[in-house]
Amino acid sequence: MEKLALFFCMTAGVMWAGSGVAAQHFFAHSHxxxxxxxxxxxxxxxxxxAAVTLSRGHWRRNxxxxxxxxxxxxxILFYGLxxxxxxxxxxxxxxxxxxxxxxxxxxxxCPAMVICWLAFQKRAWPEPGSAIAVGMAILGTxxxxxxxxxxxxxxxxxxxxxxxxSAVFYAVAAIFPKHLTGRLDNSFLLTWGMLFGAxxxxxxxxxxxxxxxxxAELLFDLFVIVVCGTAVAFICYNVxxxxxxxxxxxxxxxxxxxxxxVMSYFLFGTTFGLVQTGGIxxxxxxxxxxxLWRRRAAR
Length: 299
Description:
The chain is an all-alpha fold. The protein is built from 14 helices and no strands.
């Protein structure tokens, strides 16, 4: 059963990677921008997550908690705007300005940012494995975006800024709702966080017409971004979590940046030099190192 659970979690990672690659194709064949796609995806995701919550019979229990603690609505609003909406927009904007492979890899410096934030909170140095991972993530990002040349960037400056921003907001989305997940189902939390974020992003669009999404050449992209990258990925990851420890599940997240690089190579011909490849390997290794270090220390 553990092998099957690993397969499900890795499938989720591949689906998430696929949604980034599909977004790159979407922008290349559409006049719609990152905020438009953010609005569409978040609306669709909120409906999908509501259906998941209802199908599991958990809606009433979560609603009871919300009525008992109405202050949670403000926390979910913050999570939806600063975590989810900002993360989605920054990620899609970076892809629109660059390419999915580089942006996805940079976004996965998020675990290193989480380590730094937790160390700052505790006013203590992180454990050795985590500290090394932070250094590896920083060095890996440097090699990826410069290719080893200090006088030039391998991607545009705006793409780099938005990619790093997506990692920062990803860290917010990972850290902030921790105190909520014990009281609310993750699917219920995502339902409202995505809905609040969707409404906010829709207000920032310029007369968005949802019919513009339903062109033949965009339908497969939307299927991958919304259905595979949201519903299928969420269900697969949660099925896997039932049989894996948190550490085991977190190790599978290394699949996403690798899958994004492979998909981008076959679909768009995106290639990386030796130095950039070394940077990618360092960032992926930085995701896994803290978990492996803790396992070794526990023996």
